[in-house]
Design goal:
The protein is α/β, with parallel strands linked by helices and 211 residues long. The chain has one domain: Ribonuclease Z/Hydroxyacylglutathione hydrolase-like (Metallo-beta-lactamase, Chain A, 4-Layer Sandwich), CATH 3.60.15. The strands form 2 sheets. The chain has a 7-stranded mixed beta sheet. Strands 5-4-3-2-1-12 form a 6-stranded mixed beta sheet, with no helix packed on it. Helix 2 crosses helix 3. The longest helix has 10 residues. 46% of the residues are buried.
Length: 211
C-alpha cells in the first residue's frame, strides 16, 4: 500500500489498481483552492464540508468513484467499509463526522476525520479506532484536535502506526515532540506492508504534503 498526502485531510491510498481517496476538498475550498486531481475507485468523505467533500474532484478519465459520505456498512471492489457516527463543529456549525474503518492489504485502517472531541465518538466509532493497525488523525488545532489532544486520543487506541493529517509545520513538530519522536524523518510517501507494522506501537509516520 502506498499513502500519498496532499494537505488538509486529503490522502490517496493505492494498492495495485485500486485507488481510495480520503477527504478530497471541493473546488471552492478555501483550504485547498487547487487540489491535485486523480481518478479514484472509492471516495471516503468524513464530513460534508467544502474542505472534505469534493468527491467530484477525484473523478478522472474512466474512473468514477463510489462515494461513501456517512455512517453505514459498505462493500465495493472486495473492500468492506464501516462508517460510524461522531460530530464536529466547524466555524460555529455542527456537522456529522463519520469515522471509517476498513482493511487494505491485511492492514486495519481507521480514519477519524474532522474530530475535535473524543466524547462525540459513538461506541461503534471507538470500536473501529480500537481495532486499527493504522490510525489517521488531525493534529492542527482550531476546529479539530490540537497536537496534545491528538496524541492522547491516538495512543488511547494503541495502533501500530499513526498518520497525522491537517498539520502545519508547528503542529506536526509539537505532535512528534509529544511522542518523543522528534528525529523521525518526513516522508514524501509511505509504502507499507503488513510486516512493516509488526512490533510497532503508536509509531508516527509524518508525511510531506505533495503539490
Amino acid at each position: 500500500m502506498v499513502i500519498t498526502y496532499y494537505g488538509k485531510q486529503y490522502c490517496k491510498l493505492t494498492l495495485g489498481d485500486l485507488t481510495i481517496a480520503i477527504n478530497p476538498p471541493e473546488k471552492d475550498s478555501k483550504a485547498m483552492p487547487k487540489p491535485p486531481r486523480f481518478g479514484a475507485d472509492i471516495a471516503l468523505i468524513t464530513t460534508r464540508h467544502p474542505d472534505y467533500s469534493g468527491a467530484d474532484t477525484v473523478a478522472l478519465g474512466d474512473k468514477e468513484p463510489f462515494v461513501i459520505d456517512g455512517p453505514g456498512s459498505y462493500e465495493i471492489k472486495g473492500i468492506f467499509i464501516t462508517g460510524a457516527k461522531s460530530s464536529v463543529t466547524i466555524d460555529g456549525k455542527e456537522y456529522i463526522n463519520t469515522v471509517y474503518g476498513f482493511e487494505l492489504d491485511n492492514i486495519k485502517i481507521a480514519v477519524l476525520g474532522a474530530l475535535a472531541d473524543a466524547g462525540t465518538l459513538s461506541p461503534e466509532a471507538k470500536e473501529i479506532a480500537g481495532a486499527s493497525d493504522m490510525l489517521f488523525i488531525p493534529v492542527v488545532g482550531g476546529d479539530v484536535f490540537d497536537s496534545a489532544k491528538a496524541y492522547k486520543v491516538a495512543t488511547s487506541f494503541s495502533p501500530n502506526v499513526i498518520i497525522p493529517l491537517d498539520a502545519d509545520e508547528a503542529s506536526l513538530t509539537k505532535f512528534l515532540k509529544e511522542a518523543g519522536q522528534q528525529n523521525t524523518d518526513m516522508q514524501d510517501k509511505a509504502t507499507l506492508k503488513r510486516k512493516d507494522l509488526d512490533g510497532k506501537e503508536n509509531f508516527i509516520i509524518p508525511l510531506i504534503a505533495q503539490a
